[in-house]
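Teaching note: in complex prediction, the entire set of molecules is handled at once rather than each chain in isolation. The prompt given to students was simply: 'Predict the structure of this complex.' The entities are:
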Amino acid sequence: DVKVTQSSRYLVKRTGEKVFLECVQDMDHENMFWYRQDPGLGLRLIYFSYDVKMKEKGDIPEGYSVSREKKERFSLILESASTNQTSMYLCAGTTTGLGSPLHFGNGTRLTVT
Amino acid sequence: AQKITQTQPGMFVQEKEAVTLDCTYDTSDPSYGLFWYKQPSSGEMIFLIYQGSYDQQNATEGRYSLNFQKARKSANLVISASQLGDSAMYFCAMREGSLGGSNYKLTFGKGTLLTVNP
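The expected output is the structure of the full assembly:
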């Protein structure tokens, strides 16, 4: 079965800390994504990657960066965490194809204090 | 402008009745796909159903069907015979296909919270 694993379910960090959110998929998917989910705003795309070392900005990339050194791993980095980055972060992967659904991890709820 | 609009922040339905969740979309790309996801309170995102822009028939998956009206740019989800376990947040999403390659992202709506009453 398809599996996308996010390393932490809950994280609490302090303002100014550098934060790493890790995501691993076992499906050999070319495409991986990071979304954040906030009440009333739905899911908003932060960054995505369609190949190793390739990345593209999504709709809200400010304050974030990503790393994809291996096909199976896609990391989201908060260079200097701020309280407005408190959110649920969802990682997803998909194969090539218009009808290919995104497969999501269980999410990381990040609180920045 | 929003690409995906879900106008119902919340919906209520009685158990065993049918319910329609609205979704309208905006694109000039002739090739696109529409998806519906369910997110229960546990937080996992569950893929429900897919409709391609060139599909002639409305998609169906068990109790889920998609009422696809291309000219009106709407892709409403119909859940038949609602069950208590259907209580969840539902998201409509779209992928625009013509760019291919690097454009496999999905754009999501803000969601509709469905509550099924016993």
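Point out the following to students. Residues 49 and 61 of chain B are 6 Å apart (CA to CA). The interface with chain A takes residues 6, 9, 31-33, 35, 43-45, 47, 50, 52, 91, 93, 95, 97, 101-102, 104-111 of chain B (CB under 8 Å).
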